[in-house]
Design goal:
The complex is a heterodimer. Chain A is α+β, with helices and mostly antiparallel strands. In chain A, about 30% of the residues lie in helices and about 25% in strands. Chain A folds into three domains: about 25-175, 5' to 3' exonuclease, C-terminal subdomain (DNA polymerase, domain 1, Orthogonal Bundle); about 190-295, Dna Ligase, domain 1 (2-Layer Sandwich); about 375-460, no CATH class. The longest helix of chain A has 27 residues, at about 300-325. Classes of the chains: A alpha+beta, B alpha/beta.
């Protein structure tokens, strides 16, 4: 039974023949669909003639343990779709095509030694070279029927008689010339895919897997500092259908959430049909068709650097706290209280920044009275000369040094919290500067006449 | 960017930089950013305070400790402004007892933001030095301010350790030697600059009756020591000043254009330092709104602005007149 036999002859040879009318258009469409489906194995899938497909599986076989396993998987899946295939595998497209169509042994080892070449190819008919029919007929008339016939003959007479094609094809068969296939779709630069042992059917499962795919793709993109402008999600169903969803973005995307949101938006739009999983999807691929370089902005780099620095700071604080004690390493926090001693708290720095109330920058209120840079834990008593009842100090002696006051601001009256009933005396705070330029925060304790007859003076803090 | 992306981005940039450095050789010149102070000091400082060196501050008299701390805090605020990191204040315990602990509301009034400060209290000077060195080495803070009371453990070797740690981590260190009254000129250390700070009267706000109101923080500063970088270009993004205005005498040979590198440049810089008057006290006023120092010495002439014409500046920078003006 050969291709090219006429119908009566075929009927004569095989009475129980089933005859169906040829539909070349539908066949071509079927072939295209099969090619698209076969892109699940490799993105480099091309049509080979009118009845074949060419797949470039270099580097893909490791996903299937071996080439033989891949071939078997392909044959099984196509058989389950009702299509019988002959699959040939070799180191170059021409040899694979020849093996698939004309040979019993379907796989050629790589690299191809001369002995193996002789064994595999020399018996194949000349049509395996892919020559047109006229040349094949001419060569048959000259007595050349098999590849072995022309392989062992000198090249120049054959070239002179039949043209360049036969020897060129023979070189391609041997792999002496590099030949590549023209895939139907350009292979994407970045793609992430997932295979499922048992096909998934629900939309939620598909969306879940989509999120994971987006995360993987984003990692690939970020390694090269690129963002995706056009993406394609391909869902390969077990029954041979492929559903592709394409989205485009106006700026390079490198965030998984944004990608998922766009694809979900596309699916939800009225122009797209809902995903019909059929009997299940067993391969999902998210490919980036167009990627553009994504220059990280200054701000992002600065933030990355800041994050690293924050980590280093936290480690430093831990180290210091361990050696000096947790209470020795503190931050300061403002508390809204009248009494100056209570106006700040010193939480331990190891508690982290969460304890700090209000992350906004502390505003310096111009009208608020100034507070000293340094505060004594216990105010130091001084001897001061001041007018009664509540005049500012004119001169005071602190730590045995006499200071002459030349500028003063005050008084600021801070009374003890009356709701506490402690009866602590009222304080009148003064900001005093002496003739040398030193600034002190003094206070008089006790109102003259009302609380005490002998008010006492203290220095509570030092300004800069 | 996702955290993975940020980490990948940083790693990729590090690889690129390593490749560039491998091709062109390691960067032997120290490229520092400098914090400009005031016009008068910047020329001797080489543009400003270096970003990765040790700077010392000593008070002039025992009661000037608070002024020294105020000056150091102002410098720290300037450094904090440049980097989005935290500042560390490491103090020996005795200094806090003697002069009081740092007070939050006061720090806010001085221009510092409390959320970016961490305070460390060390029980003695040795631990304080250890803490300062650790903080400098890790490179995380924007500035480290240390207040040391006891100078027993502070020697050339100790200061050199701190300097190397600052260089390694690229963090400036401001060290207040609280008990070095009057010894500023006699100290020997590996610090890059040393200031002596004295208290100075502030710009008073006139009041209607009675005394005037004290103004913002002011102090008198003297640049005792400035050890400039080795011959080589320094990168200074912000300094507006070129030398030649503040302290050059008319007889000095002009050495303004930056020679690329080599001995002549060092000699010029050294000669520039020698023309800087070590005894000259600059009265500085700190403006916490702009985070800048203002040189108040020109107030005597009755001009508030520093940008005055050259002859007047040359005349006022004249050494003899500066010495004759009484220290306020």
């Amino acid at each position: 039974m050969n291709i090219g036999l006429s119908l009566p002859d075929a009927r004569a040879r095989f009475p129980a023949l089933v005859v169906a009318e040829a539909e070349p258009l539908e066949e071509a469409q079927l072939l295209t669909r099969l090619c698209d489906w076969c892109s699940r194995y490799t993105p480099l899938a091309a049509l080979d003639g009118r009845d074949g497909l060419m797949l470039d599986i270099s580097g893909v076989a490791h996903l299937f343990e071996s080439e033989a396993a891949l071939i078997e998987d392909c044959r099984a899946r196509l058989a389950s779709q009702g299509i019988t295939v002959f699959i040939g595998a070799a180191g170059n497209p021409r040899a694979a095509s020849a093996l698939a169509r004309f040979s019993q042994v379907k796989t050629a080892p790589e690299p191809l030694s001369d002995k193996v070449f002789v064994k595999l190819f020399h018996d194949l008919p000349l049509a395996a070279l892919g020559l047109d029919e006229k040349t094949v007929a001419d060569m048959a008339r000259a007595g050349l029927r098999r590849i072995g016939d022309i392989a062992l003959r000198p090249r120049s007479p054959i070239t002179a008689r039949f043209g360049f094609a036969p020897m060129a094809r023979l070189d391609a068969l041997k792999g002496l010339e590099r030949s590549s296939i023209a895939p139907r779709f350009r292979p994407p630069d970045f793609c992430a895919e997932r295979r499922f042992a048992s096909p998934i059917q629900t939309v939620e499962a598909i969306e879940f897997q989509l999120r994971k795919l987006a995360d993987n793709l984003v990692v690939l993109l970020e390694r090269q500092a690129k963002g995706a402008r056009r993406l394609e999600l391909s869902l390969y169903r077990v029954d041979g259908e492929v559903r592709r969803i394409r989205i485009g973005a106006s700026r390079p995307l490198n965030e998984a959430r944004a990608i998922v949101r766009l694809i979900a938006g596309r699916l939800a739009s009225p122009h797209e049909d809902a995903i019909d999983a059929g009997y299940g999807v067993d391969l999902m691929r998210l490919a980036c068709l167009v990627a553009e370089p994504l220059a990280p902005s200054e701000a992002e780099l600065e933030r990355a650097h800041e994050a690293e620095r924050a980590l280093a700071l936290a480690e430093l604080l831990d180290c210091l706290s361990a050696r000096l004690g947790a209470r020795a390493v503190t931050r300061r926090e403002l508390i809204d209280a009248h009494v100056p001693e209570q106006a700040e708290a010193a939480p331990s720095a190891m508690l982290g920044r969460a304890r700090l109330r209000g992350e906004e920058p502390d505003k310096v209120v111009e009208a608020a009275p100034a507070r000293p840079l340094r505060l004594f834990a216990r105010p130091e008593p001084i001897e001061a000369l001041a007018e009664v009842p509540d005049g500012p100090p004119l001169r005071f002696r602190w730590r045995r040094i006499l200071h002459d006051v030349t500028a003063i601001e005050g008084p600021e009256r801070i009374a003890a919290p009356w709701w506490r009933h402690t009866g602590a005396p009222t304080r009148d705070y003064f900001r005093a500067e002496d003739s040398e330029g030193r600034r002190f925060w003094l206070y008089r304790e006790g109102l003259w006449g009302r609380e005490t007859m002998r008010p006492k003076w203290f220095v509570h803090g030092l300004f800069g | 960017m996702s955290p993975v992306g940020r980490a990948e981005g940083m790693a990729r940039l590090r690889r690129v930089i390593a490749r560039i450095e491998a091709e062109s050789g390691p960067a032997s010149e120290r490229v520092v950013r400098r914090l400009p102070l005031v016009h008068a000091f910047d020329s001797a400082l080489g543009g400003g305070l270096a970003d990765d060196a040790l700077h010392e501050i000593a008070p002039a008299k025992p009661q000037d400790g608070a002024a020294a701390m105020g000056f150091a805090l102002a410098l720290a605020a300037g450094f904090l402004n440049r980097r989005p990191a935290s500042a560390l204040f490491i103090g020996e315990g005795f200094a806090a007892e003697e002069w009081g602990a740092l007070y939050g509301p006061g720090l806010v009034a001085h221009g510092l933001s409390l959320s970016r400060l961490v305070f460390v209290r060390a029980p003695d000077a040795a631990l304080a030095f250890w803490a300062i060195e650790e903080a400098l080495k890790c490179g995380a803070p924007a500035v480290v301010v240390g207040e040391i009371w006891s100078l027993k453990g502070y020697s050339l070797a100790a200061s050199r350790r701190l300097l190397l740690a600052a260089r390694k981590g690229k963090v400036p260190a401001l060290l207040i030697l609280a008990s070095a009254y009057g010894q500023a000129e006699r100290l020997s250390s590996a610090a890059e600059t040393r200031f002596e700070i004295a208290a100075a009267p502030s710009a008073r706000i006139p009041a209607a009756a009675g005394f005037d109101i004290p103004g913002p923080f002011a102090c008198g500063a003297r640049l005792i020591k400035s050890r400039l970088a080795r011959a080589g270009p320094f990168v200074d993004a912000d300094s507006p000043s070129k030398d030649g205005r503040s302290s050059k005498r008319p007889t000095d040979s002009p050495s303004e254009d930056g020679r690329p590198s080599g001995r002549p440049a060092v000699r010029d810089q050294r000669s520039r330092l020698q023309t800087h008057d070590v005894d000259r006290v600059i009265r500085l006023q700190w403006r916490s709104q702009d985070m800048t120092f203002k040189d108040m010495t020109f107030r005597d002439i009755g001009v508030d602005d520093q940008a005055i014409s050259l002859p007047l500046a040359a005349a006022s920078g004249d050494r003899s007149r500066a010495a004759a003006r009484p220290r306020r």
